[in-house]
């Protein structure tokens, strides 16, 4: 049953709302209320609109009516750009009114937009914004950034499951950048080893942070990386073996294999998605080559 305080929230056109909607129409394409369809959301729109609403002294009902007036002015049949602008308006507007949007915003009744369509818009828009935010997370894994990105994820109402998967893909891309750099510098063993060490350091921090006290405050998806199981893993496995061999040669160059070295090699094996027998064969081969040098 609709809460009593929201029963009057049904959309109602008025001269005041129409006039205010006209004032809120964009004089510039970057307007936070209604932007050009091909412009990306910046993530600051919701907060800006809430502040604007408060500055005008609008209650939620009147503010929602204004948003509906603006939506009426978007011709969704005028091309992809207009349709995208309408979808962005749905996303931003629903976040402005949060849990009350179902009562305040009659998208279906006025525009024929069904709940499943709204869910799709909310999810895809949130994913787009979140993907941009993930770019701010580098191999250093700054704690403040991890917390801020988590807050934004919750503000965008992006599910933990999707957020975690997106972060894992982002982390893999960072590792793949190291791998590409190493493969492009195979004649420079020092460079190759440095790239592998960067991968191990990054993976180690991901593992530690996933078990850190209060980790629920951090971005979802923290944890060790593995490239095993990726669709192109079989095509890349020989390259990965080559890098594994180069690193094994570095750590075993003194002829000794201690627990720390073995732990690092095992960690790298898991990251590269190599089978245990594959890694053991590489280490055996490296040991033989090192032995020949003595």
Provide a quick synopsis of the model:
The protein has 294 residues and is mostly helical. It has helices at 15-24, 45-56, 60-72, 80-97, 101-104, 107-111, 115-134, 143-155, 160-183, 189-210, 233-251, 259-272, 276-293. The termini are far apart.
Attribute tags:
Chloroplast inner envelope protein; elongated; 294 residues; mainly alpha; 13 helices; disordered N terminus; TIC110
Structure description:
The chain is mainly α. It has two domains: 4-113, no CATH class; 169-293, no CATH class. The chain has 13 helices and no strands. The chain has helices spanning 15-24, 45-56, 60-72, 80-97, 101-104, 107-111, 115-134, 143-155, 160-183, 189-210, 233-251, 259-272, 276-293. The longest helix has 24 residues, at 160-183.
Question: Could you outline the blueprint of secondary structure elements for this entry?
Answer:
Blueprint: H1 15-24, H2 45-56, H3 60-72, H4 80-97, H5 101-104, H6 107-111, H7 115-134, H8 143-155, H9 160-183, H10 189-210, H11 233-251, H12 259-272, H13 276-293
Distance between the termini: 83 Å
Largest sheet: none
How many structural domains in the coordinates? 2
Q: How much helicity do the residues have?
A: 55-70%
Which series of helices and strands comes N to C? HHHHHHHHHHHHH
**Strand fraction band?**
under 5%
Number of β-strand runs = 0
- Give the class from helix and strand content and strand pairing: mainly alpha
Radius of gyration, CA atoms, in whole angstroms: 26 Å
Helix count, per DSSP?
Answer: 13
| Mean pLDDT over the full residue set | 86
Low-confidence stretches: 1-11, 25-30
Shape: elongated
Pfam family, one: Tic110
Protein name: Chloroplast inner envelope protein
GO cellular component, one term: TOC-TIC supercomplex I
InterPro entries: TIC110
């Amino acid at each position: 049953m609709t809460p009593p305080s929201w029963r009057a929230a049904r959309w109602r056109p008025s001269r005041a709302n129409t006039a205010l909607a006209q004032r809120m129409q964009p004089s510039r394409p970057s307007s936070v209320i209604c932007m050009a369809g091909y412009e990306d959301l910046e993530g600051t729109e919701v907060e800006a609109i809430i502040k604007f609403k408060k500055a005008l002294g609008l209650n939620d009902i009147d503010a929602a009516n204004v948003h509906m007036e603006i939506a009426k002015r978007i011709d969704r049949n005028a091309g992809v750009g207009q349709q995208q602008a309408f979808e962005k308006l749905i996303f931003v507007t629903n976040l402005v009114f949060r849990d009350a949007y179902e009562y305040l915003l009659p998208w279906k009744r006025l525009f024929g937009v069904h709940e499943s369509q709204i869910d799709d818009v909310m999810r895809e828009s949130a994913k787009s914004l979140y993907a941009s935010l993930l770019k701010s997370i580098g191999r250093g894994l700054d704690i403040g950034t991890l917390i801020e990105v988590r807050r934004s994820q919750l503000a965008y109402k992006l599910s933990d499951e999707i957020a975690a998967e997106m972060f894992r893909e982002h982390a893999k891309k960072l590792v793949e950048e190291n791998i590409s750099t190493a493969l492009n510098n195979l004649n420079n063993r020092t460079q190759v080893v440095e790239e592998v060490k960067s991968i191990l350091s990054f993976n180690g921090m991901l593992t530690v942070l996933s078990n850190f006290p209060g980790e629920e405050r951090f971005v979802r998806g923290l944890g060790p990386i593995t490239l095993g199981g990726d669709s192109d893993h079989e095509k890349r496995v020989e390259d990965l073996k080559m890098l594994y061999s180069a690193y094994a040669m570095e750590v075993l160059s003194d002829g000794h294999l201690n627990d720390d070295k073995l732990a690092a090699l095992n960690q790298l094996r898991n990251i590269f998605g190599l089978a245990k027998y594959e890694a053991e064969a590489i280490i055996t081969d490296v040991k033989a080559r090192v032995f020949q040098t003595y």
